[in-house]
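Posting for a labmate who doesn't have an account.
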Amino acid sequence: MNTISCNCGFKITDENKYKAEAAMWHHAIQDHTDMLKSMTVDMLEQWLMNKDEQLKAGA
């Protein structure tokens, strides 16, 4: 199973890592739009790398 969690407490678990990541992006877009708009490319890159680490840890 693949699990990704958000700092706000939202958590998604799915067998398909792409579906888990898509659900996290959906959550981020719906609930954290202002935060995403304020992030730089480098910040988004770091965020993605952290989420990849979460997926690897759950594998």
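Reply:
Got it, the structure tokens are right above this. The helical segments are 17-31, 33-38, 41-58.
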